[in-house]
């Protein structure tokens, strides 16, 4: 087989240029005469979706925040292996993951995809993810390079980040992925960085990424994130996505002819594309393979379940007068358990946006708890307690029969009932989105008509609400009556900001009676080539829904209240406006706690939430968005089969006003000033002396391992010994923070301390264990803006060893 260099050098200029933009939404261009096939990429990071949002089912893994909350790169590496196998099952060779932007503010819409507020923890987590994924023979595409930390004006905002903050904070995970994990590809961010768009930044792509770090892989744009012809290619942006091209093709050929782009730049970019095909063993293949859901997945689901439980964080666990803690639950002491809350029945397993996958199966909190407790004679009662939907809940297809989706090349064909569809298919979801033509026509932004048909059988009688959220004109008809028409719905944030607002209508329905449901979507030619249709349905609201929950709590031995957000609140495309739980969840927790003997709150959200009821409840467990094994993993922790071992990868603030970026977020006049500098997360809280609700690194266990001794092996390694005098095996995360004793300059953003090392340690009951923790080589360095390089910081230093940023057990002197 020819080398990538020989393949590229045998191409004409036009053929080389053709490789520099996608053929469609998910595939690269093939050049059959040269033996260069097409390569497929697919969205992550919590699964490998494939080319359709409602397509083949996939394993849904825990969100990025939970993965970081494990503080265990080995566990994350196992998840990477799972995702590598899933990527191949979708005929793809590149997974668009992981997402490693920092949690600059707790309300960032995609925080759940990201990992931590700390660059070192994010870097270590990302390296494990990339290593596991790429060992399966597929490429990771780490994103978004760089500064895409919130969704506010994300397509145009200019993220103004000073040089030192950029180097010591936001670039750290990307640098580690390049140097330590040898990541094969990188995706640029949508936003501008100190002026230029990230996809046009010579400083980022040429000087830093390829020059300083020695990256030799492929750089691709985020979808529709390239806005230039000459600037992007000259900065080293290899692949424009999606295709067909908007900025390259004939325009790039003309730029070469005009001398605006050197032919060598085109060749270099084409070589990077072909090299990635070679590294993923795509050369020699016929092209992307078929997409399917894997069958033999029991071992992988066990990995997902173990990872999910490993990242759940026990935040509170009160003991009674006899010293017995609320958790773990002891089934032999239970007669009745009340499972309450809007996320109690089904759970929220993942966030919204491009991270969405259709899970192969879902272990729900209610199903898993009943399966574990019912055989032991424990009665489990369920009550939702309140509503939290921002948009109407997704139309459940298990309430539907005879589901069909019809496609028409001409949207006007929908007006003629006698015309046969050009294609008939089905769907696994009532949330449908097409980023390529389902009729397989060449070109983009083609006209299309879509008709969704089903027999819907309501579970209860009364006035139902139905909704349509779509990119274009759409309507919903039930038994011949138009219930929803979105003709007057304005443009909103749906479908990544390209869709219309939700349109809602009502209709009286009778339980058990099947109704013919028809939804139609009309997409004209033109636009961005994205089409979408989401159908919502909501049963008649129960005016006594909270009262029923309180009654269930009053008669239970323990009430488990599952509160949180969902994919409407935490989603790509918009940020949250507040830390408060949506709807009346705070009031629900207060009332349940007042009525219940014991109250356990499970927080099912991808980012921090406010907890005004904290003093009223007995236990709090944060389970994040844990993936499709949510129910099983949650029950494993609640019943003590698994030791709580997650630790917070982010600080939980008391109020939004109590956060370091509050004065600067979201930005003004198209500019986001990162005025807090390096003081994000715990760095700010510890430096200014502000008390968080829960500190970074915090988490409880059912067993307690205490740090007994610590000694300095040398300035770059610490040996720590932990002891466990209890009757249960313990797991602890030992954290090392570096404090420079030299006072900072007035007005400096030098943090009081920074995380420089950590290790998760198992300590058997009545035993001890020792671990040697490596100290980050950058611990004794800072970025110097005058020399534009790393320089040593003068000591002495104090290395603080503890179990959170606020729980320090030992202090050691180091010289650096």
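^ Assign residues to that structure.
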């Amino acid at each position: 087989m020819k080398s990538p260099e020989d393949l590229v050098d045998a191409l004409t200029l036009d053929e080389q240029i053709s490789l520099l933009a996608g053929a469609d939404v998910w595939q690269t261009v093939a050049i059959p005469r040269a033996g260069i096939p097409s390569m497929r990429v697919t969205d992550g990071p919590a699964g490998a979706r494939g080319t359709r949002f409602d397509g083949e089912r996939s394993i849904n893994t825990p969100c990025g925040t939970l993965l970081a909350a494990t503080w265990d790169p080995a566990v994350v590496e196992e998840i990477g292996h799972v995702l590598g196998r899933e990527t191949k099952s979708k005929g793809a060779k590149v997974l668009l993951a992981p997402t490693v932007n920092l949690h600059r503010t707790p309300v960032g819409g995609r925080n759940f995809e990201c990992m931590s507020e700390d660059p070192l923890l994010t870097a270590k987590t990302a390296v494990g993810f990339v290593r596991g994924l790429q060992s399966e023979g597929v490429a990771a595409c780490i994103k978004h390079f760089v500064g895409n930390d919130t969704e506010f004006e994300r397509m145009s905002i200019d993220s103004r980040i000073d040089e030192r903050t950029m180097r010591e904070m936001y670039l750290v995970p990307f640098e580690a992925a390049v140097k330590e994990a040898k990541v094969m590809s990188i995706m640029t961010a949508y936003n501008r960085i100190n002026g230029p768009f990230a996809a046009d930044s010579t400083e980022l792509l040429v000087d830093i990424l390829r020059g300083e770090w020695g990256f030799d892989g492929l750089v691709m744009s985020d979808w529709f994130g390239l806005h230039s012809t000459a600037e992007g290619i000259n900065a080293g942006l290899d692949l424009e996505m999606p295709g067909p091209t908007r900025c390259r093709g004939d325009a790039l050929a003309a730029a070469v002819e005009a001398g605006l782009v050197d032919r060598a730049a085109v060749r270099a970019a084409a070589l990077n594309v072909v090299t990635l095909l070679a590294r993923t063993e795509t050369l020699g293949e016929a092209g992307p393979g078929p997409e399917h859901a894997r069958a033999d997945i029991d071992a992988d689901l066990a990995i997902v379940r173990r990872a999910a439980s490993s990242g759940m964080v026990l935040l509170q666990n009160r003991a009674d007068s006899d010293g017995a803690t609320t958790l773990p639950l002891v089934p032999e002491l239970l007669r009745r358990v009340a499972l309450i809350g809007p996320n109690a029945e089904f759970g929220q397993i993942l966030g919204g946006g491009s991270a969405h996958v259709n899970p192969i199966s879902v272990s729900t909190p209610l199903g898993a708890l009943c399966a574990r407790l019912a055989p032991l004679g424990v009665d489990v009662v369920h009550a939702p307690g309140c509503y939290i939907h921002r948009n109407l809940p997704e139309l459940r297809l298990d309430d539907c029969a005879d589901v069909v989706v019809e496609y028409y090349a001409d949207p006007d064909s929908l007006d003629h009932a006698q015309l046969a569809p050009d294609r008939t298919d089905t769907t696994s979801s009532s949330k449908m989105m097409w980023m390529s033509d389902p009729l397989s026509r060449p070109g983009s932004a083609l006209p299309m008509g879509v008709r969704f048909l089903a027999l819907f059988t309501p579970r209860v009688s009364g006035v139902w609400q139905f909704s349509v959220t779509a990119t274009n004109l759409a309507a919903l008809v039930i038994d011949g009556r138009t219930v929803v028409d979105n003709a007057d719905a304005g443009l909103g944030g749906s479908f990544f900001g390209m869709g219309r607002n939700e349109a809602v209508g009502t209709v009286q329905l009778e339980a058990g009676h099947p109704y013919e449901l028809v939804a139609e979507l009309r997409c004209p030619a033109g636009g961005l080539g994205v089409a979408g249709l989401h159908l919502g349905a909501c049963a008649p609201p129960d005016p006594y829904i909270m009262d029923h929950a309180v009654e269930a709590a009053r008669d239970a031995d323990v009430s488990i209240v599952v509160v949180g957000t969902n994919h409407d609140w935490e989603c790509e495309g918009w940020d949250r406006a507040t830390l408060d739980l949506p709807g009346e969840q705070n009031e629900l927790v207060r009332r349940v706690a007042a009525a219940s003997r014991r109250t356990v709150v499970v927080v099912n959200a991808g980012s921090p939430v406010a907890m005004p009821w904290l003093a009223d409840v007995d236990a709090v467990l944060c389970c994040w968005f844990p993936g499709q094994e949510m129910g099983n993993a949650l029950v494993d922790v609640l019943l003590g089969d698994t030791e709580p071992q997650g630790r917070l990868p982010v600080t939980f603030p008391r109020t939004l006003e109590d956060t370091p970026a509050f004065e600067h977020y979201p930005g003004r006049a198209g500019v986001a000033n990162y005025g807090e500098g390096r003081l994000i997360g715990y760095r700010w809280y510890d430096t200014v002396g502000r008390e968080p609700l829960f500190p970074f690194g915090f988490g409880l266990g059912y067993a307690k391992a205490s740090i007994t001794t610590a000694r300095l092996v040398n300035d770059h390694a610490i040996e720590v010994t932990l002891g466990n005098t209890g009757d249960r095996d313990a797991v602890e995360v030992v954290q090392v923070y570096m404090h420079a004793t030299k006072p900072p300059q007035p007005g400096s953003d030098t943090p009081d301390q920074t995380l420089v090392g950590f290790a998760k340690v198992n300590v058997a009951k009545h035993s001890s264990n020792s671990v040697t923790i490596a100290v980050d080589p950058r611990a004794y360095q800072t970025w110097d803006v005058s020399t534009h390089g790393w320089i040593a910081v003068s000591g002495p230093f104090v290395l603080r060893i503890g179990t959170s940023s606020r729980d320090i057990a030992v202090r050691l002197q180091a010289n650096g």
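The mean pLDDT is 96.
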